[in-house]
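Dear colleague,

As promised, here are the two records you asked about, laid out in our usual form so they can be pasted straight into your sheet.

NAME FIELD: protein one
SEQUENCE, THEN STRUCTURE:
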Amino acid sequence: MSNTTSSKSKASTLAKLQALITGLQKQFPNGQFTLGNTVFTTAALVQTLQSLIDAINAVNTAQANAKVAVAALRVTVATVGPVVLALKRNLLAMFGTATDILALFGLEPRKAPAPRTGQELAAAAAKAEATRKARGTASKKQKLTVTGNVTGISITPITAPALAPPSAQPATATPTAAPQGTAGK
């Protein structure tokens, strides 16, 4: 039955199984069926179908409980996670390189960064310079040397038109003039 119900929703599967049970009990209360090589009574078929319904309902309940548990876990991690991180940092600061004591807490000392070679330092400096040029960034001293060059300023006064007093008569449409060259024809 799993092949026929794989693309259907659980709710529709439950409804169809319940309809099968109801129909069997109504039409064949004392019936007997041979399915495959096995003989089933109506009561045995109802019990078999009901076991599938119970299994689907158990999965639905488990999935709902899992969602609640995952949500609770996320809330707990959000509140306890920063405390754990702060505790680890504090223990690392307290015991630094004492590997025996840190091992009691399940921690390892911080690894010292490997010293850079001359080539790595030169490559990093070249990359930083190229990045500054690409972004157009400059130091404070270089920014002070940048000035604008103004050649002339012309000020144009803006005057607002005087507001006309509101007229009591509605505005009338003015007749449009005929286009030029068509008046004499």
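NAME FIELD: protein two
SEQUENCE, THEN STRUCTURE:
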Amino acid sequence: MILFNGSSFKDERGTVRFVNSFDLKKVVRMYCIEPNLSIIRAWQGHKRETKWFFVAKGRFLVKTIRMEDLKDITPIILSDQESKVLEIPGGYYNGFQALEKGSVLMVFSDFMLDESKNDDYRLALDEIQWQ
């Protein structure tokens, strides 16, 4: 996994958040997820697809775990107060939970939807403990 750090600029006109080190050349689609606060969306993985996560609003707990061995869950907090993009390459399961009401997660992918569906692997929440 890679965490791209960005920054922000604020003046009387408002705030601009940016992550200039995140190269969008590989991205072929983007979507936003606005989950209910009480829902944990886990575990979805891809063997080849790479995804990037950016919090447009609110705060999320994102967890990843290698598909090969299902050991060592890595938790990461992403927030709209910090300009960061989390890259999750193929070979990982991931899951996330909104930590604030109204949170919005932007997801970028290097696979078109049909390609992604053919590279989709899921485990039930009770197969890998969230806590």
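A couple of things worth noting about protein two: Helices lie at 113-117. Residues 48 and 90 are 4 Å apart (CA to CA).

Best,
R.
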